[in-house]
Structure formats: structure tokens, C-alpha cells
UniProtKB/TrEMBL annotation:
Residues spanning the membrane: none
Required cofactor names: pyridoxal 5'-phosphate
HAMAP family: HisC_aminotrans_2
The protein's name: Histidinol-phosphate aminotransferase
InterPro entries, per database record: Aminotrans_II_pyridoxalP_BS, Aminotransferase_I/II_large, HisP_aminotrans, HistidinolP_aminotransfase, PyrdxlP-dep_Trfase, PyrdxlP-dep_Trfase_major, PyrdxlP-dep_Trfase_small
Keywords for the protein's UniProt record, in alphabetical order: Amino-acid biosynthesis, Aminotransferase, Histidine biosynthesis, Pyridoxal phosphate, Transferase
Domain Aminotransferase class I/classII large residue range list: 36-351
N6-(pyridoxal phosphate)lysine: modified positions: 227
Biological process terms in GO annotation: L-histidine biosynthetic process
């Protein structure tokens, strides 16, 4: 009888030491009543979007578009660019992974303001690139001068998340354009605008992607349907860039990036942009109410232009997260740094403020 060999070949050493990707989780035997840990929109997709996705299932025996052409063309019309300047994928994070694989060799540097999106170190590590973290300023904003100083000859990519996740802070349009212009031409600048639809400050979104791309040939703009478009569960994202950059991404991307129902849902969503505007307006209202209440309770709240708030509570982050968890509220803990709370509906905001007030009472008694 042949012995069974259960050995498994070792995975790449690049996996050693990679940080994990976390999310808010319930405690044992608990269920969250308020899901405020993943920056999801509180409103679900419209009936028209659901109907479009369901109708597309009837063609499930056929492959979808090779490159998501129908969605790319619709996005090109929305942004006033050529269809050859659009690439789509199962979330903007997939496109970022493609960018890094296409532009970075092992040992190359990726410069990013930090703290920022926790997937960036994972993507850099998988490519064998070195992430150069540039500390945020005292207001939890990206520091343009420090970023420029950190970019050297070995830097291939600079990632700017604006508004920044998890702090919600943003550079205004003039600051951002000046920073992009100041970076050397050999650096591919990735502007991650996952939360741009929530940036109600006109100074943050004054420059259209098309206009910005005509100014900066080394720029890639990432957008997503996961946030203000309310389609996080369907995983659709896109980028806008020079056609030569898009062609490079196609070279490293697998075919058929999006299932037909996802494309159909995204196309239907694009037909009703007023839904995004309504979500953004509701978010601004809830964000303002939550921020005012938390500030009144003495919490350090960063100025947010996104659909979440950053509480820079430092070493109290884990304890505060556990307190919210016990109140049935999912939030994101960044150990020894802060807590990120997604803005939701009226009930979510009320629950957060009640739990925050209870936390403050506990702190005052101890």
C-alpha cells in the first residue's frame, strides 16, 4: 500500500510577515446591529439596479466582455475621456495590484502617506517592493513636502489616497495638483479616489479627472462602485489613465474581469447618478451630526471628507473598539493609533453617540 504524502510545497517567502487585512468582527455569541466597520453605504441598490443584475443572469452560460468594454465605454462617456483610457476590474484594489505588478520589480520603492489604506503594504509586499511610509501631519493629512522628500531614484510608484482612508482628511485641488506636478516624471502617481463622491468640499473635487489627466501623463485615477454607488458586494472598480498605462494593465490582467451581472448592475447605476448625490447628501448630514456629538464628548475627531470619522485615540483604540462591540456596533480598530467609524443612518448615529457617551462616563469614573 502506498503511503499518503501530505507535504505541501512552501509558498513564496514574500508572504512572510505580510500584514493581514482586518475588519470589524462580532464577539463570541454576538451579532452587530450597526455595521460601521467597512465604510459601506447604508442604502442598498435601487430596484432598477437589482433588476438589471438579475436579468443578466439569464446569459450566465456565456462569457462576459473580454475587458469589460461596455462598462468602460459608459465610464468614458461619464468622465469625458476616451474608452481607451478606462480599465475595469473586480474592485479598484485589483487595479492597484495590477499597477504595482506592471511597474515594480523586487526592491523598487512605493511611497505612500501613512497611516493610509491597509491593503497598500500587502500589495507592495506581494510584488517584493518596499513601502516607504511618510507620516501624516499633525492634522492627519498628507504632507506634500515630506512626500516629495521621500521620493528617490528607486521610487516607481507613489500612492495618494484622497480623501484618505482611514483618516478621512483630504488635500484640496490646488494642493493635490501641486504635489503631483512636483513628483518626478519617472514616478507613476496613483490617486486613489474611492471616497471622492463623498467629498462635498468644492475645493477637494474642483478638478475633473479628465482635466487632471491632461495635465499629468504619469497619473492613474482609481474609482470604485463600492462606496457612494452602493455596490460593495458586487466588486466593481475602474481606473482612468493614459492609454499606454491602460494597455500595460491589460497585459497583466486576466481576461473577463467582471461578471455580466456586475456589469449590468454598474451600467444601471450609472443611469441614475442622482442616487449617488442623495447618498452623499445623507452622508454629509450624518457625518456632521456624528462629528459634532463626538467632539462635544471630547473625542479627537479628524476633519473628514469621506463616509467615516477618525478618532485619534492612540493607545485606547482597542478598548474603545471593544466598548463599541459590546454595544453591538462594528468599527475598525487600528491598534495604538485610532478608531474608524463609518457614517450610517439615523439609528447608527444615535447608537454611536450613546455608546460614546457611556464610554466617557466610564472614563470619568476611573
Amino acid at each position: 500500500m502506498t503511503d499518503v504524502d501530505t507535504r505541501v510545497p512552501p509558498a513564496s517567502g514574500r508572504l512572510d510577515g505580510l500584514p493581514g487585512y482586518g475588519r470589524g468582527r462580532a464577539g463570541q455569541g454576538q451579532a452587530f446591529r450597526h455595521r460601521l466597520g467597512s465604510n459601506e453605504a447604508p442604502e442598498g441598490p435601487s430596484p432598477a439596479v437589482v433588476e438589471a443584475a438579475m436579468a443578466a443572469l439569464s446569459g450566465g452560460n456565456r462569457y462576459p466582455d473580454l475587458r469589460g468594454e461596455a462598462l468602460a465605454e459608459a465610464l468614458a462617456r461619464r468622465h469625458g475621456v476616451g474608452a481607451d483610457m478606462v480599465a475595469v476590474a473586480a474592485g479598484s484594489i485589483v487595479l492597484l495590484d495590477q499597477i504595482v505588478r506592471a511597474w515594480c520589480d523586487p526592491g523598487d520603492e512605493i511611497v505612500v502617506p501613512w497611516r493610509s489604506y491597509e491593503a497598500y503594504p500587502i500589495i507592495a509586499g506581494l510584488a517584493g517592493a518596499r513601502l516607504v511610509e511618510v507620516p501624516l501631519d499633525n492634522e492627519h493629512r498628507a504632507d506634500p513636502a515630506a512626500i516629495c522628500n521621500a521620493v528617490g531614484a528607486g521610487c516607481r510608484v507613489a500612492i495618494l489616497c484622497n480623501p484618505n482612508n482611514p483618516t478621512g482628511t483630504a488635500l484640496d485641488a490646488d494642493e493635490l495638483d501641486a504635489l503631483i506636478a512636483a513628483l518626478p516624471a519617472h514616478v507613476l502617481v496613483v490617486l486613489d479616489e474611492a471616497y471622492a463622491d463623498y467629498a462635498d468640499d468644492a475645493g477637494t473635487v474642483a478638478v475633473s479627472p479628465a482635466r487632471r489627466l491632461t495635465r499629468h501623463g504619469n497619473l492613474v485615477i482609481l474609482r470604485t462602485f463600492s462606496k457612494a454607488w452602493g455596490l460593495a458586494g458586487l466588486r466593481a472598480g475602474y481606473c482612468l489613465a493614459d492609454p499606454r498605462i491602460v494597455n500595460a494593465l491589460h497585459a497583466v490582467a486576466p481576461p473577463f474581469p467582471l461578471p455580466a451581472p456586475v456589469v449590468a448592475a454598474a451600467l444601471a447605476a450609472l443611469e441614475a447618478p442622482e442616487a449617488v448625490e442623495a447618498r452623499a447628501q445623507n452622508n454629509a448630514s450624518q457625518r456632521g451630526r456624528m462629528a459634532s456629538g463626538l467632539c462635544a464628548l471630547g473625542f479627537p475627531v479628524a476633519q473628514s471628507r469621506a463616509n467615516f470619522l477618525w478618532l485619534a485615540v492612540g493607545g485606547q483604540a482597542a478598548a474603545l473598539t471593544a466598548h463599541f462591540r459590546d454595544a453591538g456596533i462594528a468599527v475598525r480598530c487600528f491598534a495604538d493609533e485610532g478608531v474608524r467609524i463609518t457614517t450610517g443612518n439615523d439609528a447608527d448615529t444615535a447608537a454611536v453617540l450613546a455608546a460614546a457617551a457611556a464610554w466617557r462616563e466610564i472614563q470619568e469614573r476611573t
